[in-house]
Every structure is written in C-alpha cells, then in structure tokens.
Amino acid sequence: AQTVTQSQPEMSVQEAETVTLSCTYDTSESDYYLFWYKQPPSRQMILVIRQEAYKQQNATENRFSVNFQKAAKSFSLKISDSQLGDAAMYFCAYRSARRGGSNYKLTFGKGTLLTVNP
Amino acid sequence: ETGVTQSPTHLIKTRGQQVTLRCSSQSGHNTVSWYQQALGQGPQFIFQYYREEENGRGNFPPRFSGLQFPNYSSELNVNALELDDSALYLCASGGTSGFSTDTQYFGPGTRLTVL
Fold this sequence. Notes:
The complex is a heterodimer. Chain A is mainly β. Chain A has strands at 3-5, 10-14, 19-21, 24-26, 32-39, 46-52, 60-61, 64-69, 74-79, 88-96, 107-108, 112-117. Chain A contains no helices and twelve strands. In chain A, the strands form three sheets. In chain A, strands 2, 5, 6, 10, 11 and 12 form a six-stranded mixed β-sheet that branches. Chain A starts with a strand and ends with a strand. The mean pLDDT of chain A is 93. Chain B is mostly beta strands. In chain B, strands 2, 4, 5, 6, 9, 10 and 11 form a seven-stranded mixed β-sheet that branches. In chain B, a hairpin with a 6-residue loop joins strand 4 and strand 5. Chain B starts with a strand and ends with a strand.
C-alpha cells in the first residue's frame, strides 16, 4: 500500500517571500501521479499542481513549482512571492497510474497548514 | 469553482440514524469518488462509482454505500451512524480519458456531525 508523509504540520512565511512544503511517499510502482491540493477555510479542495512520474521535468504553475525526486520519493512544493490568499492547508496526494478499481483513489498526507504573515 | 456541488452543507444526526449526502459532478465527468476527512486529517477514500457501478472501495464497512445516477449525480448513504462518522465528506468527479482521468475535482463538502 502506498503512503504519503508530510512532516511539517505547520509552516509560516512572510508575504512576498518563498516557502517550500515537503512531501515524501512510499510506493513500489514505477508509474504514478502526484498532486498538491490546497484547502482553504472554505473547505473546498483545490488542485494546485500535478506531476506525472514518467516526466523528469518538474511541473510549474505560475508561482507554484515542484521539486520531484523520483529516486528519493520526494515531492516538495515551492510557493514563490507568497500572497495572503495562499494561506491554507496544503495536501500532498498520490495516485497510481494503473487503471481500474481502487487504483483511482487518491492517497493523501496529513497536510501542512501554511500561514502567510503580512 | 470546480463545478462540483454537494448538499447539504452541514448536517447533524444522532447515533444510529441513517444519512444521505448528495453530489452533482462536473459536466462531462462520469466518475465520482467519495472521501471522508476527519478533523485534522487528510481525506480517506471511501469508494468510486463509474457508469453507475461501484468501481473500487477503501477500508470502509458495508454500512457506507452509494449510488450514481445516469445524470452523473451521486449519493453517499451511511447507515447506523456512529460518533466516529463525524467528518467532512468530500465528493470528487473525474473523466475517463486523457488528463481528466488523472485529476479529481472536489466539491465543497458536507460537514456531518453525529451526536
């Protein structure tokens, strides 16, 4: 079974600064997908960024980028130029690339609460 | 906004009762998954429906059941409620091909409190 670990329960960053959130995972599979989701106090889980394991290039989405280290099973999220609206709980998630059944499920870490200070 | 809606927003039930939560998937998506998120935890996979049939299940007892309708709306039913069922229940929809296969889009959730 796959597991996802987020070792930082809480992080804080000053507005306009850069912060990195850590995530490690454990799997025996070679093909999979990794995601970062953001959950603000409104509770809606919002996709921030995704990474396919077969791609060596790190994904980027505007101010959000990842550092994907497949051999180390590490998937960190970097937020540049942090904004007050970035404050939220951030979840790292894993999904198998196998089709069918419970392979479609997302396996989540416990989350990192990010505070952005003005 | 993801286009996925859930109702009701909040719900309070008593131990032993039954509850039905509803989800309307994003247009074009024909898979729906349900997750349970306990306070301070990440979401846990309950089950997924595809073309009106259960297509995968997590470690949840049979008193958690679901339905998916031809219009891709979905229900989560929980019988014999227990105190530990108190949680945020999230619905997520996804498509069946290409990029959309791999990404699930979440609704705002239903907060269930069992007293």
